[in-house]
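Attaching the record inline, Q. Sequence:
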Amino acid sequence: MRISVSHKTKQFFVLTIKVAILIGAAYFIYDKLTNNSQLNVDTLWAQIKVSQLLHASNIGMLIFISSMNWFVEIVKWQTLVRSFKEISLWESTAHTLGGLTASLFTPNRIGEYGAKALYFQKSERKRVVGLNFLGNFAQLLATIFFGVLGGLFFMIHFELTLPWTKLWQILFLLIIITILLILITKQKIIQINGFSWERIRDFARNVSGGIHTKNSIYAILRYLIFSHQFYFLLLFFGLHTSYFLAMSIISVMYLITSLIPMLFIFDVVVKGSVAVWLFGYLGLPQLSILTVVSLMWILNFVFPSIVGSYFVLRFSMPATNEKSVIS
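Structure, as predicted:
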């Protein structure tokens, strides 16, 4: 038995989803800003007022850096999609920021995969999900690369000793998991909704080397942008320390938090806790570190999510053989 749904019913359903996403996003952002157990709004504002942050030039620079951060991500997504079809920079902006807003309440922003896929034809969506995975994976690799380098510098500087026995146990476990994944891949045991490890591997191989190179370059560039923005905020709050030491701690912080599965809305809490612990080695004020983490969250996620709400409202399902409509 086949049940047909009228066009008006579909429109109403899509509108309901849009409104639910926007209300949910607004509530979660408001709740996090007003009920942050680590740093409430009044304390945050007091910290900002006593810093050098309220100068017009400093505000302008921070907004510019945040804009560049997301511009690079937008160009990266445009480059990935152009591996199979042309999209404009405006369309890529809609996909990227709209996807950010729609994925606010999902663990590690996994909802972004589905949100971006909706902008494309049904026949293209698996490819879009795969490309989004490649983009996120490149960003993770950049975080791991700089995080490992920073971690080594951090340990050497503070002469930290490693629990080698536990590390060897973890390494052994990772080797076993890797071997099992290889066997599973060859036997095609794991396959979820048409996606298997073998298909993901083949998909990555079919993407041109030029696209992979550009994807990696954009991921590294974006990492350097937001990590240095964190460093500049430290300077604004008078937290002067060695550049390389500060950057090593920042890289370790991003490495640790990137490997912890969590709801996006708790991102600021987890990063705050990790940052306070790491910067505690330098004896920097806890309140100032929490303020920097909160400002990074506001500048790079809250503000872009607000912009993304416009694209969520303007979204319409793509018509047959056409791209989604972005007004």
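The chain has one domain: 7-314. The first strand starts at residue 191 and ends at 192.

More tomorrow.
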